[in-house]
Specification:
Chains A, B: Belongs to the eukaryotic-type N-acetylglucosamine kinase family. The structure is a homodimer. By secondary structure, chain A is an alpha/beta fold. In chain A, 43% of the residues lie in helices and 17% in strands. In chain A, a hairpin with a 3-residue loop joins β6 and β7. In chain A, α5 packs across α13, α10 packs across α11 and α11 packs across α12.
């Protein structure tokens, strides 16, 4: 075992010096801007057998934000290390049992980001442990494909990104650039458009809308004038994106303005997927080839009448009838664990 | 003279105990998010004579940001006090010569903001000095109307706002809610749309555009991927808005994407003015009455081929042929000084 970066984090190993039944594990971690989840999965030694479905999860641990762009390098690192230790400790196992780790973290956009995380991860685990670092979108894809990197994933929560992979290892992304750079299909984008519509209705630039009453009530404000103060008091994207259900309710109730905002969001989300499919040729030469489209995130989940995810799929079908929409049954952290296992097996059989 | 809030700021008065020639002055201050300007203007005792044109300015002092939302109450206050002291000191005069002060500061949106600033301003000046606190848009209007509060002002710099006043004291505003709440016509809005267009061209969601080459060159970046890091490293609105000239150059050179962004900005800016004119009935009952439209800010200044300000006026003319566009010959701080004088005279002749 290597030197401890942080003695306290791994103290539990003193009471649990070896894995009780000698069983081995893989760790999968999904690190986002809102929260970080780590799961501990048994290591299946045979690569020629399909993994059990559902995938067994030995333990699950949760922590806060681990995006280094948001909280800084040191805090991100400590959060990641702690959540891995928690998952191992809960599973009754320790680092000597780990065969592979996949960290899928938001904010990993360049090989330099990967290298930086890999280098401190290397200090935590023994040299025989296989370590993989990916963008969190990759884990979301894997959560719908049992760890296979092929197809496209569309994530639409507070933010949005479309990420695609071909079987021969090419990849492409669209959107995921944050709200300043026009991720209008995201939860943040939908909510910001709704807030804008309220301001416009109030100052005479736009039509009246039921969003005014509904949003003011949701925020306990008495006038649209107060929205400026509310917005800039804490411009956290998640706080604003939390208004999406209000927009969907208004659209469900027939409000034209809310309806238009959701329709534009559908167009935006579909255009991200189409751009990725087009660039990677996921649909084959005739445009009719099939490919998995994994759909993840609160914005894409079914609502009462208005189902954003369903509308996005309808919009993509028109151009790519081979689209196979998948709503994952497991969370992205499990996708990361599946990736760790898949990567390990591929390396072992090179 | 009241107690000094900050001894050092007013130390110069010890060497200049009385106004040298007994002449009196008014102070006009324009406090924005980027900078703060204070001018010292002679006090003209007769209200029945028009003020000289050009208005004589005895001294001018400049400081940084004085928006309390940006820098906090204490720093804003010190900046405002210092810049007033500087202007007085430079004019060879002191507080005993001051008859009226108008502070026009961005971030003043509610009567409570006004009251807060008035209360500490009252500590600085003797009780006979008339004190007025306004939103900075009001000074911009006054800079084009020789201090009369009638008509509409459109400001489009980093941000944008339309503000209007009727002769009987009603007022209305549109936009000015910041970028999250959809001030798309602003310099920030134009630049953010241009950055978005570059990202979209890069990831396949949008058409190719000359903006890519021009913006990357302007920012010394080598790939659109680096825009994400550049943008979120320092999301200051002014830093992003500084890209407007690049967008205008591309539109001048015939780039369709840049052209469309500017056309949308024109529509947005015109719609703010129209909303204010409509709500206040500035155009009279038949819609053809004339009213001054004061136009202020870098976005509205003439460019080579593409003149955003001219296009905005053309767009407003279609609905309101009585629009009288004015490009002020003096800066907003002088507008604030003119306001101070006008308010003073109106109170004196009540």
């Amino acid at each position: 075992m290597k030197r401890y970066r942080n003695g306290e984090i791994w103290d539990f190993e003193d009471e649990m010096p070896v894995s009780p039944d000698g069983s081995e594990v893989v760790l999968g971690l999904d690190g986002g801007t809102t929260s970080t989840v780590c799961v501990c999965m048994p290591f299946f030694p045979l690569s020629d057998r399909p993994l059990p479905d559902p995938v067994p999860v030995l333990a699950r641990a949760v922590a806060g934000c681990s995006n280094h762009n948001s909280v800084g390098e040191t805090a991100a690192r400590e959060t990641l290390e702690q959540v891995m230790a928690d998952a191992l400790s809960k599973s009754g196992s320790n680092r000597s049992a780990v065969r592979a780790v996949c960290l899928a973290v938001s904010g990993v956009n360049h090989p330099t980001d990967q290298q930086r995380i890999l280098s401190w991860l290397r200090d935590i685990f023994s040299s025989h442990v296989k370590l993989y670092v990916q963008n969190d979108a990759v884990a979301a894809l894997a959560s719908g494909t049992m760890g296979e990197l092929h197809g496209c994933v569309l994530i639409a929560g507070t933010g949005t990104i479309a990420y695609g992979f071909t079987e021969d290892g090419r990849e492409a992304r669209a959107a995921g650039a944050g709200p300043i750079l026009g991720d209008w299909g995201s939860g943040y984008g939908i909510a910001a458009q709704a807030l804008t519509a309220v301001v416009r209705a109030h100052d005479g630039r736009g039509p009246q809308t039921a969003l005014t009453y509904s949003i003011l009530r949701a925020l306990s404000l008495s006038s649209p004038d107060e929205l400026i103060g509310w917005t800039y008091a804490d411009p956290s994207w998640a706080r604003i994106a939390a208004l999406v259900p209000v927009v969907v309710s208004c659209a469900d109730a027939g409000d034209e303005v809310a309806n238009k905002i959701l329709l534009e969001s559908v167009e935006e989300l579909a255009s991200s997927v189409k751009a990725v499919v087009q660039r990677l040729g996921l649909c084959g030469e005739d445009g009719k080839g099939s490919f998995p489209l994994v759909m993840v995130g609160g914005v894409l989940e079914a609502n009462k009448t208005w189902d954003i995810g369903k509308e996005v799929v309808n919009c993509i079908y028109k151009d790519y009838p081979g689209t196979l929409p998948i709503r994952p049954k497991v969370e992205p952290a499990v996708g990361a664990a599946l990736l760790a296992w898949n990567f390990f097996m591929k390396e072992a059989h090179k």
